[in-house]
Every structure is written in C-alpha cells, then in structure tokens.
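Let us begin with a simple case.
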Amino acid sequence: HTILGKEMQEVLIKGKDILPETAVRCLEVALMNAKCQTRGYILDGFPLTKQHVELLVEKGIIPFKLFELECDVTECTIRAMKDRSDLNRPYPLPDSPEAISYKNAIYQSEIMPVRQWYTEEHKNWMTLNAKSNKWL
C-alpha cells in the first residue's frame, strides 16, 4: 500500500520487468525492517549484472555472502521439462530447451563480472553444486 508498492504493481501488471533502480529502492526499504537487520535476508537472483552491483555499492549495500548454485544446462532443462507437467504450477514460464539455453548463455555472460568483483573485492562469493538435488 505504499507509493513504491503501487509503482511496482503497475509495472508488473503491464508484464514488464522491474527496473534495477526500483529493485534496489525496495531492498533499501526492506533492510530498514528490524527482522531483516537481525535475522538477515535472502535475495534470489540478485545481483545479476554489473549495473546491479554498482547500484548496491552506491547505496552502501554489501551482501554478507553470495551463493551461486552451479548446475549444467542439461540438468536445468531436465528439471524444467519435469516442472512443465506439475499441475500446481502457479504460472506458465518460457521453459523450452531453447529458452533455457538462451537464458543460460545470457546468465553466463552477465554473471562473470559480478562473480569476479565480489570474489576480489569482498571475498564473499561461494559456488555450490546444485546438481545432486534441486532442493539440497
């Protein structure tokens, strides 16, 4: 019910992506919450680009740890194909083998400078093997 929340809702209803600047503004608001300050927080899929890192640095937000789940494209494709048949799936996703391969290629090109920056600057980047179990 905030101005920021209404702004985000309008963008999402139109089917557009949230701008990185807006995502960081939301993160700033969340970080002011006492629970977040004492218990910590988890961001799924952020930061993904060098622009995200620059915005976080500009705001003085330094994640304590960043975990990259390592899983090859073949395994991701197999999991996506299994998820397709899940009747409880909340919404349709573009998860064809071609789409997954394309998303992975973009991810690999975008994440390299992010991984390098956090590894060198803060030594807080960790890679975990996610192939054995998608929930482990």
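The second case is a distinct protein. As before, the sequence precedes its structure tokens.
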Amino acid sequence: MPAEPLVCARTASRVSSVLNRDVKRFGKQHLFDGSEETCWNSDQGTSQWVTLDFPRPVKVSQLHIQFQGGFSSRLCTLEGCRTGEELVKISELYPQDSHAMQISFQVEETVLDKLRITFGSSTDFFGRIVVYHLGVLGERL
C-alpha cells in the first residue's frame, strides 16, 4: 500500500516557539498549508520541536521536510508513542542545509498516536529553525 499523508485537520500540532510570538505570520499552521510563501519560524533557542497528535493510530514510514537554507537542523530526532505512554526514540535523521524539499527520509515503521520531531544543532547561530513544509507519510490504522 502506498504511503499517504497522515496530517489532517483533526491532527493536533504544537511547536516549541514562534519567532517574536507572531503566530499569524510564522505559526505552526504554515507547516501544512502547502504554500511556498509561508513558513513556521521558531524563535531562538538550542532545541526546537514539533509535536503531532494524530486522531487515530498511524504507522509512519516517511518524513518530507523543506527548511530555509541557513535555518535548518543538522540533526532531527524522531520520537513517538501510543496514547498514555512516554515518548521513545524512533530514529535520527541528518538533513542537508538546503532550501530543497528533502523527501528521502525513510522512517522505521512504528505504530503511534503521537510524533515529536526535535530539531537539534541548528545551522543558524541563534538556533532558529525555518520550515516551509513538513509532510508525514504512512498508513492510517
């Protein structure tokens, strides 16, 4: 079965921070809006993250991400869990510092209700992360 997009209108999302608390211009909604002109822009800090709570269990298989070059992460740690459980590490990804869509991240398939993507080691001196697109693909169970 081919992988399908897992983020839907009922998927609850949270982010670590938003640049200058300007949610309208840089908020989490821009991760999934499909627009080339909008983005989630974190505030400065050593570790930024995005958490997704899916409305029903999913099996994640791929992660697609598009950073702004110069504001990307050298290391992305994926953690996940079922409802009521603690997050456990699924895998580590090493993105390029590029504005190109990076779609080659294969994820060890794991059934989960919650996914956290932690962006460590930003390429920006102040630790900011800028993401134009975040796609989580897999199978709804």
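Residues 41 and 130 are 4 Å apart (CA to CA). The mean pLDDT is 92.
Keep these points in mind for the review questions at the end of the chapter.
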